[in-house]
Specification:
The protein contains 7 helices and no strands. The chain is mainly α. It has one domain. Helix 3 packs antiparallel against helix 7. The longest helix has about 45 residues. It is globular and about 60 Å long. The two termini are about 35 Å apart.
């Protein structure tokens, strides 16, 4: 029971804090509403636990042996996040009568986990912290991934809810544009710590 509580607290504290997933999900809520953002939300909620499983069951060993792979993925992720920030800054909604952007699909959101620097830190941190070499690894990793799966949905719903609430406050296209640019800048700011050498 202590293990479940400890992992759940870690999953909640890392999943509810601002990061690329949450910023993008809130922005999707503002620009596209609940229904069109649901594939994005479910892609995050399922994609991240699958990433935890993959890292826990083998990729961490591969990265230990070939650290350059982790560095390459990290910088691909940073470039992709900058691209997403540009898309967010230039996105539009039905507010101006023309839809220029589309919300992320389930596959895009799930695949995004693999280039999300915060996601890598969370997944590697969880596996490293909550597994023990005295016990079989596979059940431990499955338990950690399952707890992340359970905790991800409420955390993601909170951020989507923020977006829906903000949508009601943004009364015109100019306000929404300011919001989108602000979120793009926040997304860029969220990756600055990831760019520091480790």
């Amino acid at each position: 029971m202590e293990f479940i509580v400890a992992v759940a607290l870690f999953a909640f504290s890392s999943g509810i804090t601002p990061g690329p997933n949450n910023i993008m999900l809130m922005t999707s809520g503002v620009n596209f509403g609940i229904q069109r953002s649901l594939p994005h939300l479910t892609g995050i909620c399922i994609g991240f636990p699958l990433m935890v499983l993959a890292i826990g069951l083998g990729l961490s060993g591969l990265f230990s042996q070939y650290p350059v792979l982790h560095t390459v993925i990290k910088y691909i992720g940073i470039c992709y996040l900058l691209y997403l920030a540009w898309l967010i800054a230039n996105s539009s909604s039905k507010m101006d009568g023309v839809v220029k952007a589309k919300p992320l699909t389930f596959i895009q959101a799930a695949a995004f986990q693999w280039v999300n620097p915060k996601g890598w830190i969370m997944a590697i941190g969880a596996v490293a912290t909550f597994t023990s070499i005295e016990q079989p690894l596979v059940p431990q990793v499955i338990s950690i991934a399952s707890i992340f799966l359970a905790v991800a949905l409420p955390c993601a719903l909170v951020w989507l809810g923020f977006g829906i609430g903000l949508k009601k406050l943004l009364k015109n296209q100019r306000q929404q544009r300011i919001f989108n640019i602000s979120m793009a800048l926040l997304l860029v700011a969220s990756i600055i710590p990831m760019m520091a050498p480790q």
